[in-house]
Amino acid sequence: MKSHVKRRTDPERAQSRRNQVLQAAAVCFARSGFHGASMSEISKEAGMSAGHIYNYFDNKEAIIMAFVDLESEHVAAQLRELGGKDDPLQSMIDEAPRHIDENLDPEYFQLPLEMFAEAARNPKIAEAIRASDVVAMAEFRPIIKRERERRGLPVDDALLDGRINTMVSLFHGLPIRSLHRPDMDRNSLVEGYRVAMKALLLS
């Protein structure tokens, strides 16, 4: 009961502790995989007892659910930034190199790959990822529609869905392709993405 009261009266400290656990879990999941990493391994990495971790997360599934939430927040921030650009479509094309670099960085993609793998066998995680995507698309789709309308380009539902799903798939597939071909030429990849993004967004 004491720890309960303490967490309620000191939410900043509780959030700091949660972040400490999440940082440790990210290291352990990248090193051992979601199923390979134990709570004791995570507690050791975090520098706290396993019992203490359970004050903040019921189990490993709760930890990965927290990562889904963090990824959702990251995407939401990117979409807010995109929506505020003078020309969001051109901005997406111009910023393709930055997004490519992110998706080719193992430190960036290892955790999402673990989440996707877990979602393939865990309905609860899958549902959370789908719900997150629904929220993101509710922000992203209107931006694409508005900017295409401004250019006098078609904006029917089937076309928009196809273009958006193709763009998202391109970036989701990058980490997997980089695992197959770690020696890919980055500059030619950027050029290919710019061609594809221009065709998808501006035609």
From TrEMBL:
Record feature DNA-binding region, as residue ranges: 38-57
InterPro entries: Homeodomain-like_sf (IPR009057), HTH-type_TetR-like_transc_reg (IPR050109), HTH_TetR (IPR001647)
Organism: Duganella levis
Annotated Pfam families: TetR_N
Residue ranges of domain HTH tetR-type in the record: 15-75
UniProt protein name: TetR family transcriptional regulator
SUPFAM superfamilies: Homeodomain-like
Lineage of source species: Bacteria, Pseudomonadati, Pseudomonadota, Betaproteobacteria, Burkholderiales
Keyword terms of this UniProt record: DNA-binding
